[in-house]
Amino acid sequence: MMRAVLAVLFACCVLPSPLFAAQNAGQAVSAAERMQQAGPQELGLRSRTGTWEVVTTMWPKPGAAPVVTRGLVAERAMVGPILQEIMRPGPGSSAADFRRIDYMHFDRVEGRWKYVSMDTRFPVSIMPASSFADADGDTINFRFDSQAFVGFGSQVEGRFMVCTMSIIRPDADHEIKKQYFNMAYGDGRPWLFVQYEYVRKR
């Protein structure tokens, strides 16, 4: 699955080589070449690579007691201009084995962030998201494509779900991801569903 996602991302972000083949002296640089160069957003992504310790907190419904999972590790690396993250239980963690994979990229042509995540812990499929614009200070706000939610009971609920996410970067060694759910319950009550707290390990 990871190979398929990478193929799609490269197909979207890497332009055919003829556009970049000739760079003779005095030849104007094309818009495609300028947009392919690393901007401040990509440089910021590069600074977030490495190994991070993660604590997750989940609230299954509004007002529910939080479910906290510790001992998780996130490995981050650049795939071209795209930041890849693979989260899993760290050594000695009591959490069941899983993989949560996401990719994050700043689209210089559209002037906004793109994001996609997938998680083997829950049948939520692949979740694409995008921002409306660039970051707002130390926060990037995303809205996911709408999709169905299976629920936590014995029967498939298949409820319509709207999800947003804020990525907050208070400093170089800390990061917080907050995902808010709004289920089709008829009352329009969003709540903080899950929070990921990152601390740089190395």
What does this structure look like?
It is a single chain. The protein contains 4 helices and 11 strands, in the order ααααβββββββββββ. The chain has 202 residues and is mainly beta. It has one domain (38-200): Beta Barrel (Lipocalin), CATH 2.40.128.20. It has a 10-stranded antiparallel β-barrel. β9 and β10 (174-183) form a beta hairpin. It starts with a helix and ends with a strand. The mean pLDDT is 88.
Topology record:
Layout: H1 2-13, H2 18-21, H3 31-36, H4 40-46, E1 50-58, E2 67-79, E3 82-89, E4 100-107, E5 112-119, E6 127-130, E7 139-144, E8 147-149, E9 159-171, E10 174-183, E11 191-200
Antiparallel strand pairs: 1-2, 1-11, 2-3, 3-4, 4-5, 5-6, 6-7, 7-9, 8-9, 9-10, 10-11
